[in-house]
Write a structure and sequence with these properties.
The protein has 395 residues and is α/β, with parallel strands linked by helices. It has two domains: 214 residues, Rossmann fold (3-Layer(aba) Sandwich), CATH 3.40.50.12170; 148 residues, Aspartate Aminotransferase, domain 1, CATH 3.90.1150. Helix content is 29%, strand content 12%. The strands form two sheets. The chain has a six-stranded parallel sheet with strand order 3-2-1-4-5-6. The protein has a three-stranded antiparallel sheet with strand order 7-9-8, with no helix packed on it. Strand 4, helix 5 and strand 5 form a beta-alpha-beta unit. Helix 5 crosses helix 6, helix 7 crosses helix 10 and helix 8 crosses helix 10.
Length: 395
């Protein structure tokens, strides 16, 4: 049996370092965290701070709530999920940043959340909002670092256009950006003048080529839709289905790994495999299946669809995969397929916000070939890689 390396996340490094703890001694702490802010032994960050030399004054939590149980898009009310030692304030819904009165007695705002490394996952935008408030109130900002599940080398999906910025995308990030929270925080501070330059308690034992399942760390589901670390690999592609009336598998035991609709036919797979390149075709397999979602799109209806099995994760491109799914469904089923717009998007098309550009939908609706659309997906990636290397904390 191959023994995996043991990565220590920032929380564990802080716990084991007297030098790092001295920096926080007698300071009033505000903590931005949720169920993923744990050690390998599942000690929560709020429990650590409550027993440390620092003084934990407030806990702030992102979408899905402190225990990561809230439904997608659901606003979890303050202190609604059971007692934590200090008041818990939700930063999702109408309020998306710590209120001023909560910041008055805080010296250091600490961020400790396991993210996906995916642009449209809302936790990084909560972090950015908290950095802004820290800058406005003169509060120190500290990030306890954690690994991006898809390694620090996978970067893909055209960087988002500034005019489409929202709580599910911004800061010129590609769909998969390959940065740890600490690296991302330094990038946001330097490139967008957001908040103070954050301090980072770096991980020990992590390198850019390590995927989450190679870290030796247990996977704690960061939201109901990401039950397994493998789900994070397909999510950057099948999440695009949320901008359509296709099912992305929510309401099943395999969200984002299953996709389909009641009106899908066997012709779908044929056309899909014809569209994608031979190189992409060799990185996954599709298993035809039937499923009945318990909620979300087509709740209670029998869907014809497929389960995704990734066979080469280094070369698998979830973003191109998702774009191809949408194009084929649009072209094959003009009477059934539809775009979906969230009422939260202030008139902006949800698919455009997810993809980061209006051009993908425009090309699909014009009937452009797959090569042109897939070429668009690759634009700007190398420039982004070059622009963020100065913020790398790990080799």
């Amino acid at each position: 049996m191959i023994e995996l390396p043991r990565v220590n996340v920032g929380l564990e490094v802080l716990r084991d370092s007297e030098k790092e703890q001295l920096k926080l001694k007698d300071k009033d702490i505000g903590l931005v965290s949720n169920c993923t802010g744990v050690t390998a032994e599942f000690e929560r960050s709020d429990q650590f701070f409550a027993g440390s030399g620092a003084k934990l004054r407030a806990v702030f939590t992102p979408e899905h709530g402190f225990f990561c149980a809230g439904k997608p898009g659901e606003s979890v009310s303050d202190n609604s999920e059971g007692k934590v030692d200090v008041p818990v304030t939700s930063l999702y819904g109408d309020r998306r940043q710590p209120p001023g009165e909560k910041m008055e007695d805080i010296d250091v705002l600490v961020y400790d959340i396991q993210d996906l490394g995916v642009r449209c996952y809302t936790y990084i935008h909560t972090m950015a909002n908290c950095m802004k408030v820290a800058g406005e109130t003169g509060t120190e900002f500290l990030i306890l670092d954690r690994p991006p599940p898809l390694s620090g080398k996978k970067v893909e999906g055209r960087p988002i256009e500034s005019e489409l910025s929202s709580f599910i995308g911004g800061y010129r990030l590609p769909m998969v950006y390959g940065l740890t929270p600490g690296e991302l925080g330094k990038y946001l501070s330097a490139k967008f003048s957001i908040g103070p330059t954050p301090s980072v308690v770096s991980m020990e034992g992590w390198s850019r080529d390590l995927w989450y399942d190679e870290t030796g760390l247990p996977w704690v589901s960061p939201s109901p839709g990401i039950p397994y670390s493998e789900t994070a690999l397909v999510y950057p592609g099948t999440v695009l289905l949320e901008g359509t009336n296709l099912s992305e598998g929510r309401g099943t035991s395999k969200p984002f790994r299953l996709f389909g609709a009641p009106w899908l036919t066997k012709k779908f797979k044929v056309e899909f495999m014809n569209l994608i390149s031979p190189a992409d075709k060799s990185t996954f397999k599709l298993r035809e299946c039937r499923y009945r979602p318990r909620f979300s799109n087509y709740s209670g209806e029998l869907c014809r669809g497929y389960e995704i099995y990734v066979t080469d994760r280094l070369d698998f491109s979830p973003f191109r995969f998702g774009i191809a799914l949408v194009k084929v469904a649009h072209d094959l089923y003009p009477e059934d397929f539809a775009w979906w717009n969230s009422s939260l998007n202030k008139g902006k098309a949800h698919f455009n916000q997810l993809t980061g550009s209006r051009k993908f939908r425009e090309l699909i609706e014009k009937g452009c070939d797959g090569e042109e659309i897939m070429g668009l997906a690759e634009e700007g990636i190398e420039e982004f890689r070059d622009s963020v290397m100065e913020f790398f904390l790990y080799k």
